[in-house]
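name: query_chain
kind: protein
chains: 1
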Amino acid sequence: MDTSNRKKTKLGYSIFVFVALYHMLSHVHVHGRSISSDKSKTMELAKHKGTVKTIQMKPSHYPTGMNVEKFDLNLLQGYIKCPEGTVPIDRSPINNFTLSKFPPGKYEPQDDRSNHEYATVIVSDGNYFGASAWLNVWHPATFNGEISISQFWIVSGHGNEFNSIEAGWISDNYRSTGCYDLHCSGFVQTSNQRLLGTGISPISTYGGKQFDILLTVHKDKQSGNWWLRFHDIDIGYWPSSILSKLSDRAAVISWGGEIVNSKAGGRHTTTEMGNGHLPDEGFRFAAYMRNLAFFDESGAAIDAEDIEPYAVTRPECYDLKIPTKNKDWGKHFYFGGPGWSDQCP
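structure:
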């Protein structure tokens, strides 16, 4: 999503957060941190001048009208289940190597967006209380420390007062390009399972079997917190207290792809979006997102019937195509591209 005021946003009144389930293989060491010995929905964290701070352990409700399938967690590379009452903590030595290889801040997603390119669809001017989608998983090639992302955005506010929640997968390691997963301040993990930052395997194959994952973000009716779900697993939430412009509802939902183009060598990057193929190739040959939905105030899932192309930065490099809605896939679209070519100099 094109947000030219993102630098002001970071320094002003809002928080940029990104949660990614990325499919690069990772080898990590994690430890459990005690968060609760109480099985109730909330726990006492601290008392400060008479104020009790609590963690919400489960949503007070779940979205309705969705077909949620269980996920085989054995397919996640680096998946670990910690003891009950603990959460995983990333102690990966590979993070330090990556940060030293690519200096922090080189492509800060919160700041300069001029070298980011997009192929996204949007619904806007509504009252949205969350979003979901099935995201086709690939391994697009990336170069020069760049990134390739497939995700959705939940947005409210403008200019200096802007909030964005983002969920999806990423190719290449976003630890070098800003914060993500539990490295972003504010996100509260409640699950004892290590899901964020794990590698997804298998991935889709060109012309062959396709693989996708279900991600959902919804606003809790009682607490106002924004909960993240992976299939049928509650991972955690963003507290409403840190998202002033999302404390009520979102005004915009967007789905699609994003890449960084560093223009190394004075030409367009060859970093791929989606699976590196243009959307006209269709099923099994181009990346897709399917069953796009948003949630109304009651928590009911509503098909995103009225999506339209939003930010298609350079269609000769990365494009999108919206087919007719069908029974199984609902509202869906294909997106992506190879980057540099004769048509994309």
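note: The longest strand covers residues 116-128.
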